[in-house]
Specification:
There is one protein chain. This protein is an alpha/beta fold. The protein has a domain of 173 residues: 3-Layer(aba) Sandwich (Carbamate kinase). It has twelve helices and 20 strands. The strands form four sheets. Strands 3-6-2-1-9-11-12-10 form an eight-stranded mixed sheet, with helices on both faces. A four-stranded mixed sheet has the order 5-4-7-8. Strands 13-18-20-19 form a four-stranded antiparallel sheet, with helices on both faces. The protein is globular. 45% of the residues are buried. The structure holds aspartic acid (ASP) and magnesium ion. Magnesium ion (MG) binds next to loops.
């Protein structure tokens, strides 16, 4: 069975290599060879690179040794340097192999963003310099994760993991045939193979399910990259830079039906996978007056602090007391700012206290087949109960069930759910390297 996308004609291919693929000189040379092979097979190639290995974390550590109040503008100047190192070294390695390469910073590649340092959004892409380089027969290499603010002309970064989004944005702007995301595992798995060795590679997944997986903490693809790909109809191919295996195709068809060449819709598995997330904390606002407008006031404060709220639970109000508790989760990194903002608004909103717990983990089960298959939640909660895992919060969508548990029980919970839905493979998944970031 062949995918309609595998047309032998000349293609424009965007290839994105993550930090673990370009972790050292040997990795860069290996990537260079792969890129050159792709061009020599008759394709136009644009490459997006992440910073080498854990460079971004190292730069963050370095700045923390100097100050804990780094100006956001300078932080972006610092962090954007990581990707620039990779792009220049890769261009050199490609030159050495006898092919032409031109590297570009995000700004030079026309990645125009808003001015929110550290999590800038792409508002326009003008890749004319990239296009010109391709027209001259060169391989264009673009530094991922960065852009330039339209207003201030300062350098911005797109948020951790943002190179995926750079790649998709370029693929959309250049009308590429495919955006290949190279990583250190063979594709998208039914769970993180580092936690569940029996996880299975998924061959094809709808962008809808991939969105839920990414939003639920699967680190294989940046959420914004999947949103962008879906919106602009860019097919994504997630695969390993350490093997030649076919990876996972994320298909952006708007009706989410994955079709094969004959136009026949494939039967979708009920469950596509399990995702987990340790990056969130739980905030409980205690003793909130149970009258209209209070939830709005709380979440306005949180929004102004630029925090992304995930799960929300409001408890039933204690009888006769007129007060309720509202709990929600948000990224740990956004916790401090959100708490400060909430405390400042305590008197005005009139709640009694705030509790904060970062020792939580979130597990999500995702599958488009949940819509039409009753009994999924029963199996899910039974599996957690059999594993002796207590649940702190629950939330659902049409195709997802998520629960919050104690952080130290999360791995066991993920394995229990993975087995309960018969997702376990007979053999162990290969993890080629890296940290899974
Ligand atoms: N280097 C950045 C990070 O580690 C961006 C990326 O890898 O996509 O978050
Ligand atoms: Mg990285």
């Amino acid at each position: 069975m062949s995918l309609p996308l595998e047309v032998p004609a000349r293609q424009l291919i965007v290839q994105k290599f993550g930090g673990s693929s370009v972790a050292d000189a040997a990795g860069i040379k290996r990537v260079a060879q792969r890129v050159v092979d792709t061009q020599r097979a008759g394709n136009e190639v644009v490459v997006v690179v992440s910073a080498m290995g854990d460079t971004t974390d190292e730069l963050l550590d370095l700045s923390a040794q100097i100050t804990d109040e780094a100006p956001a503008r300078e932080m972006d100047m610092l962090l954007s340097a990581g990707e620039r190192i990779s792009m220049a070294l890769l261009a050199m390695a490609i030159n050495k192999l006898g092919a032409k390469a031109r590297s570009f910073t995000g700004s030079q590649a026309g990645m125009i963003t808003d001015g929110i340092h550290g999590k800038a959004r792409i508002i326009d892409v003008d890749p004319h310099r990239v296009r010109t380089a391709l027209d001259k027969g060169a391989i264009a290499i673009v530094a991922g994760f960065q852009g330039v603010s339209r207003e201030s002309h300062d350098i911005t970064t797109l948020g951790r993991g943002g190179s995926d989004t750079t790649a998709v944005a370029l693929a959309a702007a250049l009308d590429a045939d495919v955006c290949e995301i190279y990583t250190d595992v063979d594709g998208v798995f039914t769970a993180d193979p580092r936690v569940v060795p029996a996880a299975k590679k998924i061959d094809r997944i709808s962008s809808e399910e991939m969105l839920e997986l990414a939003a639920s903490g699967a680190k294989i693809l940046h959420l914004r990259c999947v949103e962008y790909a879906r919106r602009f109809g860019v097919p994504l191919h997630v695969r390993s830079s350490f093997s030649q295996h076919e990876g996972t195709w994320v298909m952006p068809s708007p009706d989410d039906k994955i079709t094969i060449s004959e136009g026949v819709a494939l039967e979708q598995p009920i469950i596509s996978g399990v995702a987990h997330d340790r990056s969130e904390a739980k905030v409980t606002v205690v003793g909130v007056p149970d009258i209209p407008g209070k939830a709005a006031a709380i979440f306005q404060v949180i929004a102004k602090a630029h925090a992304n709220v995930d799960m929300i639970v409001q408890n039933i109000s204690t009888f006769g007391r007129g007060k309720t508790d509202i709990s929600f989760t948000l990224p740990i990194v956004e916790g401090a700012e959100a708490l400060t903002a909430l405390k400042a608004a305590q008197d005005e909103i009139g709640f009694e206290d705030i509790e904060y717990n970062a020792e939580i983990g979130k597990l999500s089960l995702i599958g488009a087949g949940m819509r039409s298959n009753p009994g999924v939640s029963a199996t899910f909660f039974q599996a957690l109960s059999d594993a002796g895992i207590n649940i702190n919060m629950i939330s659902t969508s049409e195709i997802r069930i998520s629960v919050v548990t104690r952080a130290d029980l999360l791995d066991a919970a993920v394995r229990a759910i993975h087995s309960a839905f018969n997702l376990d493979a007979d053999s162990e998944a290969t993890v080629y390297g890296g940290t899974g970031r």
